[in-house]
Amino acid sequence: IKQKMDTFVKEGAAFNVGDEMISLTLRVICEAAFQYDMSDEEQTEFLTEFRIALSEMYKSIIPFRHKLGFFFSGVQRGRLASRRLLAIGQRILDSYRRLNDDDIIKGTVVDCIARNKAYNNDTERIVDIFVLLVAGHDTTAYTLAWTLLELAKNPKEQLALQKELNKMPTDKRHKTPMLVNVIRESMRLHPVAAAGVSRISNKDIIVKRNDDKDILIPKGSELTLSPIVVHR
Which of 13, 28, 216, 223 would suit a FRET pair with 102, their CA atoms being 20 to 30 Å apart? Predict the structure, then answer.
């Protein structure tokens, strides 16, 4: 906040709240879970390579694309992105292993991964580091970003929340009912994975209704539940 947000306010500058929360969340996860200080350059590299790898993953449904990857520059670039992402995970693991025993915080995610003998090799450890880094950074960041945007659009609620938080000690603020409600309402309006997930029914399903007009969902039907529709 001191390094970036105060400067934005002082200069009256616009900024992308999503990008700033992504940056913040990556740093928090790396510090708290992996005892690792991710530089600005590494953040840029991680986000760039992740987007490229993700884009290529979606294209993998194209028949024979990956089997004929030699002929597709996008496939080659996607594979390079994957290697670079694994290299970031390797740096995180290597950094932890270089720490002195007195500096290691027991019970962190990286501590558990590094010490767990169930892994067959470091590649498996690095993949788990990467999975947790990917799964945690954007979901949290965009939830924060949407919350801040909703508060900005509702100044009365923002002021009421500020007053409520200022009454509480710092270590108690996360339990403030008003803050909890603000976050819940923000997640109702802007849920993570808003489009939802799909499943195929493995048997006939009968949905009972009060008007005796039951609904039959035949076996093999594709069922989709969209949180953003349900929440609204």
Answer: 28
